[in-house]
Amino acid sequence: MTTRQPPAPDAFDHRMAVFGTDDDLVAAALPFLREGLAAPGEPPPVAIADPRNLDLLRDALGRDAKDVTCVPHTDWYTGSAANAVAQAASYLTAHAGPGGRIHLLMEPVWSGRAGRSARETTEWIRYEALANLLFAPMATTALCAYDTRTAGPAVVAAARRAHPGTEVYQDPVRLAAELDAVPLPLPPAGAQPLAEPHAAAVQDWAEGRGLPAADAELFGAAVAETAAALAPLDGTALLWGEAPACVCELRSARPVGDPLAGFVPPPPTEPEPGPGLWYARQVCAYVDIRDDARGATVRLQYA
């Protein structure tokens, strides 16, 4: 069991604990939660974890358990990595102390979306890396808990690169660029071109591919919003796939250029950077962005 704790009391403190037994989990989490309980000016710490692990922590905390907010991790991690960003930001706004002060113990759901494939794992590691930038202004202390019995050695090794204080930590922008250097698979030969990716046209296509009407409406809106944010488009949109994995690829005549694109909500008084990418990341399972010499390719996959 290893725990890394970089000294950053007045900024986002992004720690990582690796454990392989119940005892190691308690040994890593208990001091962290007690640190939060003792921190002046902070609300109660929050433990977001597997329900079984929450029971272990309650038992270990004893009387202090009543002062720790416990959240089953399946209630917190309900969708894409971008959903996790939005969930954390919303919780900090509503519950954190001054400057975002709060202790969060966070155990990802590796048996769910984040753990089903290498593709999903890559998306999660990107979120872990970019969290260092997204929450940099906040005085939040987060301990990301990685159980080797569920996450596995490859996932843990990748996650170490996204956490300050480990011996292999990498700059978030550099790590995200490395992940994005992997070329996207070519669209299938039967992909359907769409000259004007309006919401209604995409919705009709998605319903024809078996997506329920409500989901097709969300996907159509995500494509239309993204197209507006990327304008001017370079060529036609391409659509392919069957429900639930409906895909749309858009080409922009200009690069996106921002690794945080779509992870930060646009200011309400400023329509740029495009609200479409924020909306698309909330709606779609994946939003892949690849800049090149001619502009950018943005690929949206609904599920």
Automatic annotation (TrEMBL):
Annotated ranges, domain MEDS: 13-164
Protein name as catalogued: MEDS domain-containing protein
InterPro entries from the UniProt entry: MEDS_domain, RsbA-like_anti_sig
Organism expressing this protein natively: Streptomyces africanus
One Pfam family in the UniProt entry: MEDS
